[in-house]
Design goal:
- Keywords: Membrane, Transmembrane, Transmembrane helix.
- This is DUF7670 domain-containing protein.
- This protein has about 110 residues and is mainly α.
- The protein has one domain (about 10-100).
- Helix content is about 80%, strand content about 0%.
- Helix 1 runs antiparallel to helix 3 (about 45-55).
- It is elongated, with a radius of gyration of 15 Å.
- The protein starts with a helix and ends with a helix.
């Protein structure tokens, strides 16, 4: 039971985090070139989807990518997007914990 919870918890959190980030792309519908702006604003979502797919199979690599993405976001925004980087750090750590402790005992 606990193994199942730890297996699914980071995956569900990463899907929810990706959905939350994708909400920010919907503020472009008032602009004249809304479709191009929507595609540009969905780039972070597509990156998060790619990282989630990688983390689904290889938890440690995906966890490292979530940590790296959170760290790069923190540095590139000069610590202004700290609230958005906390979920990435938590998800990355959870994936690494699952990959290290639960997958190694097979």
């Amino acid at each position: 039971m606990l193994k199942t919870v730890f297996f699914w918890f980071p995956r569900i959190l990463s899907i929810l985090f990706t959905a939350f980030i994708s909400i920010f792309a919907f503020d472009v519908f008032g602009s004249p070139q809304w479709f191009l702006a929507l595609l540009i604003h969905l780039i972070p979502t597509s990156i998060l989807i790619s990282i989630t797919v990688i983390a689904w199979k290889k938890e440690i690599v995906g966890g490292f990518l979530f940590l790296l993405g959170g760290f790069l976001t923190l540095i590139l925004t000069h610590y202004e997007a700290f609230v958005l980087t906390i979920p990435a750090f938590v998800i990355g750590l959870l994936f690494m914990i699952v990959g290290h402790f639960f997958k190694a005992k097979k």
